[in-house]
TrEMBL record:
GO terms for biological process: intracellular protein transport; vesicle-mediated transport. PROSITE patterns: GAE. The gene is AP1G2. Keywords: Cytoplasmic vesicle, Golgi apparatus, Membrane, Protein transport, Transport. This is AP-1 complex subunit gamma. It comes from the Eukaryota. PANTHER family: ADAPTIN, ALPHA/GAMMA/EPSILON. It comes from Prolemur simus (Greater bamboo lemur).
Amino acid sequence: MVAPSLKLQDLIEEIRGAKTQAQEREVIQKECAHIRASFREGDPLHRHRQLAKLLYVHMLGYPAHFGQMECLKLIASPRFTDKRVGYLGAMLLLDERQDAHLLITNSIKNDLSQGIQPVQGLALCTLSTMGSAEMCQDLATEVEKLLLQPSPYVRKKAILTAVHIIRKVPELSNIFLPSCAQLLHERHHGVLLGTITLITELCERSPAALRHFRKVVPQLVQKLRTLVTTGYSTEHSISGVSDPFLQVQILRLLRILGRNHEESSEAMNDLLAQVATNTDTSRNAGSAVLFETVLTIMDIPSAAGLRVLAINILGRFLLHSDKNIRYVALMSLLRLVQSDHNAVQRHRPTVVDCLQETDASLSRRALELSLALVNSSNVRAMTRELQAFLESCPPDLRADCASGILLAAERFAPTKRWHMDTILHVLTTAGTYVRDDAVANLTQLIAGAQELHAYSVRRLYSALAEDISQQPLVQVAAWCIGEYGDLLLEGNCEDIEPLQVEEEEVLALLERVLQSHMSLPATRGYALTALMKLSTRLRGDNNRIRQVVSIYGSCLDVELQQRAVEYNALFRKYDHMRAAILEKMPLVERGGPQVDEEAKESKAAAKLSEAAPVPAEPQASKLLDLLDLLDGPSEDAQHPPPLDPSPGGALVQLLDLPYAPPPPAPIPSLKVFEREGVQLNLSFIRPPGTPALLLITVTVTNSSGGDVTHFICQAAVPKSFQLQLQAPTGDTVPAQGGLPITQLFRILNPNKTPLRLKLRLTYNHFGQPVQEIFEVNNLPVETWQ
């Protein structure tokens, strides 16, 4: 015998009484079978009960799509009990992605014109919940007629439905403008609040509506002044604040109307000052009104004194006991630090105190604001505070804090020695968290400050002797010891305490780095090169260095093995040239992207090859001529191409030195992307030996006020091409013109057909994820002909 169908209340009790999910599914499957059978039988008296049970099943997450057509039948029914369940089912089971929703358009139109308020309310709620653009276009005139109905109940729902229509079809904004002007005189709280929301939506989506409603600014100002002074109604007051929801909506509308409009801003300045000084902030309702007032003041062309008052309010928010209010204040100050830097600077001590917040989101925002407040006048004090925070901050903040300190030191360093000490402190404290370019920046700084060479090598040697786990620190120290090891042994630096170092101690320390399990392959490469350079700087025997180098000739790491083999060859075959080859690195001018440096080097090489031989040549030319002996004497010997600046490729070219013709004319660069200060440029090189190969260097720069993080550039080419993407130099582009990211594309075009390039960029900017996909079709003809 088949069990009878359950009532809704009995179904709820039985589902809640199920002890396992399997029992729950069994109950629901049985009841859904009864519901389907009832729908097939077409019982009109119990259809709404069956649909009510089906809606409960749908709310539990089980499929209920077979009840969609029953919703349409109930909506078309003349009974209110049927319409109520039918409209509820339509809101839950239908949406604009399904064609069935268009079938209820006529039913809604008929119900809106009937004049029965409960039915009109149901139809308006359904239209505002799931109405598509087609439905909104068909029913907009019906909704516009209901905006001026005598019943506040219908008017309120019609206003909210009009908001939905404008969001779906902004072109319909004009039909609601006359009604809104009349509704502003409304005394009913719900209708007035909905009207303010509707006008706000109109102004955001229609420039014509924005110009139209700027005429009502005095009326809005008067309404808000009445709210602040006498109140609207006691039943809508919260914690002593008169109707905060209506105040916030009016302030938000005033902000839109006053933006970039001097006359409207003048009309509301006095009122904003009154709200800012008289609002009680002991409760959340008052804080919400005050925060909206601050946003309005900062977004319109207000007076300077009023802007300072707004920033002082945010400063008081930083001392609030509520974490949410402190978070909002930090976010707002971060947005204002560029436009009102001096006013925000007054609250710097409070912001620095927020670094010690236990809440991770608060301390992160405080860190971002603290870094934004650093300038040339407070860089020493702020750096001390940030370094103290770096020592105790959570691990997930260390990378951002270390990068921020390095960027601030690079931009505002008062002296080179202070700059170097700051970087060294960061590397010592959080070396594993620094950005990839920290090592290159510090080596560049040390190489460019000749008066600090002795000081630098001693400081780095002492730091390395204490800790060899921080890999960036070890790499910089190894590079510096290899370059200036002779200064380390002299012991005549007056800036620090005397340090007596023996040759054996230096070699033992570098060997320890090579043997440490914590050392990365790149770090071992630095240490091995440092040992090789010390062979020309130490006065003792080089046998120990030769033994260490020969050991790594059979290393599993290919890069390290190649380097050791080349160094061994230098010892055995070209020992007479070792001192000249391992001289101190020349200072590399810092500036633009890698392509610009390559272009400069190519031009320099071309000039060298064209220059007539003269008896007196610079030191670099003598070294190049000396290296030409490896290929045998030649009267027409040309200078080799510029040396690869990378550590691994330098010695390979020194020992190989193939003949290279003068470089061809440079191909013009191309800007292919720009958005909010983020710019992407392409520069091109076609190696003379392989005309089918095109090297594209992608350079990403950032002139905005926020860092670009997690940057990824992906590319695709047609099938007739071969594309190889090299690893980028990093994934972060600092703000305000910081060090750019470069990435090399190698494209093989054997058929020499026109090149089309499709790029996909993903990154985070101002805390928001950004994704751009575009095609580059306007590449210069020199790239493929």
